[in-house]
Write a structure and sequence with these properties.
There is one protein chain. The protein starts with a strand and ends in a 6-residue tail after the last strand. The longest helix is centred in the C-terminal third of the chain and has 13 residues, at 116-128. By secondary structure, the protein is of the alpha+beta class. A 4-stranded antiparallel sheet has the order 7-8-9-10. 19% of the residues lie in helices and 37% in strands. It has 3 helices and 10 strands, in the order ββββαββααββββ.
Length: 175
C-alpha cells in the first residue's frame, strides 16, 4: 500500500497540535540524509515530509518559492512541500511533474508549454492574485493576477493536498 499517512498528535509540552505526513512505504531504518525534515507551516503544524508519489522531497526549500522552483528545475524531479503559503488556501506544494504539453502538470509542464517567463512569475501570481473558487467542487482553485492564471489542485488521488498544477498567460479570445 502506498500513499501519505496522516497522523495528528498533541504535544503537552508546548500545547500545540502537530500533523505528520509520512509515505506509507517509508522505512525508518533507511538513512535519512535530506529525504525529509520537520517544517513548521504558518498554521503552526509540524510536518515531516519524505519521498512520495511526486518523488524526492526537498523540504529545505519550504516557504522559499523562488528557490524551490530553481531547485526543482535543476533536479528535474521531486517536489517541495509547502513551497509557498497563501492565507486563504494554506501551504501549497510545488512539484516538478510531467512536461507533456497536453496532459502534463507541475513546473515541468509550465516551463515546457507556457515558457520559463511564466514560471518565474508563479510566486507573485500566487501571492498577489485574486482567488476564483468557482471550481472548488472540482478540486481546484484559480489564482488570477492580471492576464496570468495559476491552477492549484486541492487533492491528489482523492487525498487532501494543495499543489501547483499549472500557470499560464490567459489570452483573450477575439470576438
Amino acid at each position: 500500500m502506498s500513499g501519505l499517512c496522516n497522523q495528528v498528535f498533541y504535544n503537552a509540552m508546548d500545547g500545540c497540535w502537530y500533523e505528520i505526513k509520512i509515505n506509507s512505504n517509508y522505512n525508518p531504518q533507511q538513512p535519512r540524509d535530506d529525504r525529509g525534515r520537520w517544517t513548521t507551516g504558518k498554521n503552526n503544524q509540524m510536518r515531516y515530509y519524505v519521498d512520495d508519489v511526486f518523488g524526492r522531497a526537498y523540504s529545505k526549500y519550504s516557504h522559499r518559492p523562488e528557490e524551490a522552483i530553481k531547485k526543482l528545475m535543476e533536479e528535474k524531479q521531486g517536489f517541495v512541500p509547502a513551497a509557498i503559503y497563501r492565507e486563504e488556501i494554506g501551504d501549497i506544494d510545488f512539484v516538478y511533474g510531467d512536461p507533456d504539453i497536453d496532459t502534463g502538470y507541475g513546473l515541468a509542464h509550465i516551463a515546457n508549454k507556457h515558457g520559463k517567463d511564466v514560471l518565474a512569475l508563479v510566486p507573485n501570481i500566487i501571492r498577489t492574485g485574486n482567488i476564483d473558487d468557482r471550481h472548488r467542487k472540482f478540486g481546484r482553485l484559480y489564482i488570477i493576477s492580471g492576464q496570468y492564471k495559476s491552477i492549484i489542485r486541492l487533492d491528489w488521488n482523492n487525498e487532501e493536498r494543495n499543489w501547483l498544477a499549472s500557470a499560464f498567460l490567459e489570452e483573450k479570445k477575439k470576438p
